[in-house]
Amino acid sequence: MATRRRVLGAGLSVAGVGLTGVSLLPVFHAYGSTTGPVAEPPVQPFSEPMPLVPVLAPVSTAHGTDTYEMTMRTVSRSILPGLQTELRTYNGQFPGPTIKARRGRPVVVRHRNELPVAASVHVHGASVPQRHDGAPMDTIAPGAERVYRYPNKQAHASLWYHDHAHHVESENVYRGMHGSYLLTDDEEEALPLPKGDFDVVIGIRDAHFDTTTGALVYRMSDRARTTLLVNGAPVPHFKVAARSYRLRFANHSNQRFFELRLEDDSDMVQIASDGGLLPRPHATKSVYLTSGERADVVIDFSRYPVGTKIVLRNTGFGATAETGQVMRFDVDRTAEDDSSVPDVLRTLPRLPKPTAQRSLVLRMDEDGRPDPQAYIDDKLYDPGRVDARIRAGASEIWTVTNANAKAPHNFHMHLVQFRVRERNGAAPGPEEAGLKDTVRLLPGETVTLQATFDTYRGEYVYHCHMLDHSAMGMMATMKIT
To answer: pTM for the whole thing?
Structure first.
């Protein structure tokens, strides 16, 4: 077993597959970034501490099941100094409270909707029966209640939950309806990774504020979402000890992509992606996250003297002076550290022999029309139509292509975690060697993935997880029978 310092110094494959240096600025400026002069930031960077998202306590643990209660409601909170921002929340918290679950122990969540709009709660990346998936048309009306049951039969993963009510999911999530769902198991807990106070959720997203009133401004494909929020605070600082931390990065933006790197360009060690631990850790200068993707990294802050302040930067395409700084780590103390990152994190089974292959194409209007639409296989989402019929137990290869010349997309499947087989005809990089539920597709890219449908039957959606795009129609239905 490797020590922490050996892992950081040797024995890892250094990722050379990032997107640094790739010129994609026109793409991002065309779809959802910033243009024009740089405005004054609405808050001084690093002036606020990064909040630690509260863990929700169950109301009952009887009969081997953890039961929770949540109320979806509108609240006002101070995000910008001296101003109040109206938010749509779970339990009045922004972001929503974290649920910690364990493999083999079911979770039940009773939701009450006190919002003025319908809502549907989806645990992104979870394998659940259809009636508990939070389907786009299976909504909770204002004033109504709904109970969701999660069997938690899958392996550990840093999942998240969010609204999925069709046509309003984009705005609901943007206005605050998202939170983390952390699933663990014996395999993960047996590893000597950083734990407890040194295992931290870091949810990152962007927002557009009216800096006079504090209101969140919502427009489809808005280019002015240039205030970055980390756990709900704008460009905060986070005090850390001079030791190793597990940081669970999650991109909760509607459509912004991030490339995260430390300002001194030192290594992070990525240990997990959407579907849990990677087979092996790998050292990397940057972590690339599209909307809805997650990545867990270990950063050893003991390499910095106490008093060091190190900025986490965003160098993804379209990053500007406004969106180039995400947060700052302030090393303010020493601490004991008995954690380490093993050379091997998990063993994934061999992919089964494929039983079927299918291809699909993502495309949206990008000719400047005032009301663009978005398509899968040139079809808008129709909840009454089944687009893919799948035999229960099948293991299928899906080839997904972004047909746009300018617009980026990504691709998310409900119910299953999949494996990436190829990216543009080549083997995927180490960051895509594990289980995934969301995968990036830059203009012209093609990704081949394999998914096995051996859990639940029923109808589930697949879609672009740039939520503005799925709300515009880039979503389809698969039926497992």
So the answer is: 0.92
**Residue 270 belongs to a domain:** yes
Q: In Å, how far from its chain's centre is CA 211? A: 27
Query: Looking up tokens 């989806």, which residue turns up?
Result: 122
CB 12: neighbour CB atoms within 10 A?
21
Helix, strand, coil abundance in the chain, percent, nearest 5: 10, 40, 50
Tell me: the pLDDT tens digits for 292-307?
A: 999 999 999 999 999 9
83-116 residue pLDDT tens: 999 999 999 999 999 999 999 999 999 999 999 9
Phi, psi of 165, deg, nearest 5: -70, 120
- Cβ contact 109:103 at 8 Å: no
Q: Is 88 left (phi over 0), alpha (psi -120 to 50) or beta?
A: beta
Contact residues for 63 (Cβ-Cβ < 8 A; gap 6+): none
- The 10 Å Cβ neighbour count of residue 41 is 17
184 and 195 inside one domain = no
For the chain, the domain total comes to: 3
Q: Examine the fold and report which residue of 163, 188, 213 is the final residue of a domain before the chain moves on.
A: 188
- Give me the domain span that covers residue 136: 62-188
Helix (H) or strand (E) holding 470: helix 467-471
